[in-house]
Fold:
Amino acid sequence: MLLQAWRRRWWRPDQPALAAYAGLRPMVVVTGGSEGIGYELARRFAASRNDVMLVARRLGPLEQAAARIRADFGVETVAVAADVTAPNALATIDRALAERRAYADVLVNNAGIGVAGPFHAQAPEDVMRLLDLNVRALTTLTRHFLPGMRVRGCGGVLNLASLGGFTPGPYQAAYYASKAYVLSFTEAIAAETAGEGVRICALAPGPVPTQWHRRARAGNAYYRYLAPVSAAAVARSGYLGYRLGLRVVVPGPLSPLFALFLRVMPRRITVPIVRLLVKPR
Ligand SMILES: NC(=O)c1ccc[n+]([C@@H]2O[C@H](COP(=O)([O-])OP(=O)(O)OC[C@H]3O[C@@H](n4cnc5c(N)ncnc54)[C@H](OP(=O)(O)O)[C@@H]3O)[C@@H](O)[C@H]2O)c1
Structure:
């Protein structure tokens, strides 16, 4: 209660703007919510009695994920098949929300891809797809939903960054750079909106055993064995950190130490180590 009052210390209700949300109900929108970390985050929000909307491209896995969450937690769970990089993605999500008389109370920008290997050998279209999803779509969705959150003085944005966002990442150069953007962008917006009632948080896990690494063609790189944390544990930490109003959450017993190491040590020392760890084998 006291924490909520502190979080809203600069928030002033704008009644005409608030009236637009009268009779609507809150939903948690999770991009990439059909599997991996996004699915576990959706489950975590659902476990706390939030209705959730899962957004991903393939309808089959989406519907299965939504059915499991519905059965386990009894909350409304909506599956929306959309590529969040597509020009009509915002309209599709808005329409799905309007059909349920709902608004995006929380936005979880989780969908993200990687591309591994020497940068000069990566297909240009793969690199552009990565930037489109990890940077452009995340920014577009945040820009779209944040104004409503500020009006309501509650809700917020949980952006998936990565431990890789703390350092340049040879052999995953564009991916690490995209996550550095997510960290910087999220912390900046969190500072801008302090006291307005919203929570803006970056979740920065180390390696998590999901299909992501195979899709990124990261091979058997050593980093994958560096204190991996399950997607469920990442979601638990991310949810808790978000609820507490933290700006950056690094889950796991060892990853916070790695993040500190990457923050304080000179890059002349850290980057060659990262290079060794990330190089596909
Ligand atoms: N796994 C790790 O070690 C790790 C570590 C740190 C950070 N992260 C970050 O955490 C996030 C989730 O990773 P993950 O390991 O859970 O990935 P994942 O298992 O590969 O799952 C990715 C999810 O995103 C969806 N997706 C992919 N492209 C999309 C698009 N264009 N539009 C909408 N949905 C899309 C996928 O469904 P469809 O294919 O059906 O669209 C799937 O639901 C990513 O941002 C990743 O960079 C992962």
